[in-house]
Amino acid sequence: MEDDPTPPASPPTALDIVRTRSLASLVSQELEAMILSGALPAGERLNEQQLALRLGVSRGPVREAVRGLERSGLVVSVRNQGSYVRSVSAAEALEIYDLRAALTGLACARLAGTATPAQLEALGALLRRMEAAWEADAATEYYAANLDFHAALLQGGGPRGQRLYEDLGNELHLFRRRALVEPENMRESNAEHAAILAAIAAGDALAARAAGEAHIAGGKRRFQATDASQPSARQQALPAPRRRARRLA
Amino acid sequence: MEDDPTPPASPPTALDIVRTRSLASLVSQELEAMILSGALPAGERLNEQQLALRLGVSRGPVREAVRGLERSGLVVSVRNQGSYVRSVSAAEALEIYDLRAALTGLACARLAGTATPAQLEALGALLRRMEAAWEADAATEYYAANLDFHAALLQGGGPRGQRLYEDLGNELHLFRRRALVEPENMRESNAEHAAILAAIAAGDALAARAAGEAHIAGGKRRFQATDASQPSARQQALPAPRRRARRLA
DNA sequence: CAAGTGCAGGCTGTCAACAGTTTGCCGGGG
DNA sequence: CCCCGGCAAACTGTTGACAGCCTGCACTTG
């Protein structure tokens, strides 16, 4: 979407950012990115002072940001002890897959009844993009297109479900470094994508729902296969017992 | 830890509360209750100073609490302008029903495979409680038992889904004052409850899922019927344009 | 040598104050 | 009569500072 009836879709001016976003929201965004990128691994302790210093702000906005992240499930806090990047257990990861499957199925079903030709064409384009990426063996490109495909799917389902799906996907990143889509899986995964699109295009809500659910279930299966996912009986609730900065002398 | 590995389910001591909960979390809890009870209606502006004064704390904890509520969808904030209790449009309310249906179906399906006799008995007891409430024409009692029944259902599904369901239920309260369950609806609703329990007891995951979804879909239908739900084309994004405290003189 | 105790340091929880922005009101001009 | 610029109040955004708690080390004691 280059330009629109709304203001000329300008790349958000620096001035606009300052005028519309508070420091707390920016810090929240930054922390979320750091967590999802792995710069702050699961179990890591969040030192407010350190983060504030590093981001060049006061502790207030940092605390507000952490509260938000706590609500969204990326962080857990203990009074007088600190906040930690949440670690997701294997059981929780599997449940999250189930939830995403239900959400995806719902979105696909609705999309089967409401999809416009433009939407169908956009989905088809993403499908071809993934196919091309698979043939070129470009894993990261496939990964990006895959993300876009799912986003487009969920967007057709409704705004609330979309946000839920994104949040759950973020949480999934907290189960260790997730295994990226393996090459041999790309083909299987994309075949499922095609099935989803076909059902939507046919206007068959039930089939679309089943295909959407089956796709995420397949992802869950592939996830279980690659990641042995029986590390220890249960992951500890508070992984990093507060690593203290070592005194110099 | 007075005398046991797991202290005898003591009602949380005042000291424990002080020791484990921060002011921010308590304020968050309080604000949430005020919003859900209708004391702070949808669209209402949240004045930080006023709330802080009223709750006897500083603005810091209030701000942190509001950030959490913002993430959970109960509040929307605009920089330099304030925070408002979110108003949910009719379209959003309907989507939320769909999401809850999917979540409930998922939980029922899983429960059909894992339910213990104790869980089945507990669900049965709640069912009878609702029936008794219906015969006694005790709407509030029915309402409470209904809440418990659904909570028990979702509890069997998994902790993450349960929290999601609760959050969505809370959001639903923001669509005006929701109409309580009408007397004639109680019987229909409870029949659906019985169908759910029967399917779970039979261990039929597919039927349980369908029954769970159908029940929420029924709720959606009843919701649409009672609440005309076409108030105006779309609800304004920022309902209360900042009512300013009137000067005295 | 093991266990218990006291102390220092760091960090969180909370508060009060300052700066910037928005809002509503009032008066002057077209 | 309507519109517009200036003004003052209120409120939010942010910061810095203080108090209390927890942690870990060192020392003492049996």
From TrEMBL, chains A, B:
Q: What is this protein called?
A: FCD domain-containing protein
- Keyword annotations of the record: DNA-binding, Transcription, Transcription regulation
PROSITE patterns in the record? HTH_GNTR (PS50949)
Q: Where is the composition biased (Low complexity)?
A: 228-240
Highest taxon, organism lineage: Bacteria
* Gene3D superfamilies referenced in this protein's UniProt entry, alphabetically: GntR ligand-binding domain-like (1.20.120.530), Winged helix-like DNA-binding domain superfamily/Winged helix DNA-binding domain (1.10.10.10)
Q: Which residues form the HTH gntR-type domain?
A: 21-88
SMART domains for this protein: FCD, HTH_GNTR
Sequence segments annotated as region (Disordered): 222-249
